[in-house]
Amino acid sequence: MKRLSVPALIAAAAITVYAAESPRWTVIAVTFFIEKNGTIHMIERATVEVPEGVDSISREPWSDAEQVLSVHGLSLLDPHTGTVAAPIAFETPYAAMVRWKTSQGIWTYELESQVKNQAADREIDDFMTVPRSRPG
């Protein structure tokens, strides 16, 4: 029985250490804007707790071959005012994945992205109609 418990404790400790080394996303608020042509603009505000030893953060929102998400901006927000404190350089190794440098602390970021012409195959006005009476 002792042989099984020692490896189990080592595995549990390894999982705990791994979890402690990952950034923790604590608050995420997303605002969407949809244009008439179907382009969706998104502004994501996220507060991230970054532990010691972590030097970069990556984010990979949903995307697929037909609806490719592209990142257009990343900023660090002032924690007291909520306004943009500084733009942040980022890289996009592939579609929808964004990665940037960071340091230990609690940071709030604003990520701007969009999906072009994919909200609908036709004008958004087709979806924004006055409710009609229904039989029944």
How would you describe what is shown here?
The protein has a five-stranded antiparallel sheet with strand order 1-2-7-4-5, with no helix packed on it. A two-stranded antiparallel sheet has the order 3-6. The chain is globular, with a radius of gyration of 21 Å. The protein has a single domain (23-119), classed as Immunoglobulin-like (Sandwich), CATH 2.60.40. The protein has one helix and seven strands, in the order αβββββββ. The longest helix is centred in the first third of the chain and has 19 residues, at 2-20. With 136 residues, the chain is mostly beta strands. The relative contact order is 0.22.
Derived from helix and strand composition plus strand pairing, the structural class reads mainly beta
How far apart are the termini? 69 Å
- Summarize the amount of helix as a percent range: 10-25%
Overall geometry: globular
User: Going across the major beta sheet, what is the strand order?
Assistant: 1-2-7-4-5
> What's the architecture in CATH terms?
Sandwich
Can you summarize the main beta sheet?
Answer: 5 strands, antiparallel
Name the CATH class: Mainly Beta
Q: Extract low-pLDDT stretches.
A: 1-19
Task: Give, in order, the helices and strands.
Answer: HEEEEEEE
Rg is 21 Å
Number of strands: 7
What is the CATH T-level topology?
A: Immunoglobulin-like
Q: Report strand %.
A: 35-45%
User: How would you state the average pLDDT, rounded?
Assistant: 76
How many structural domains in the coordinates?
1
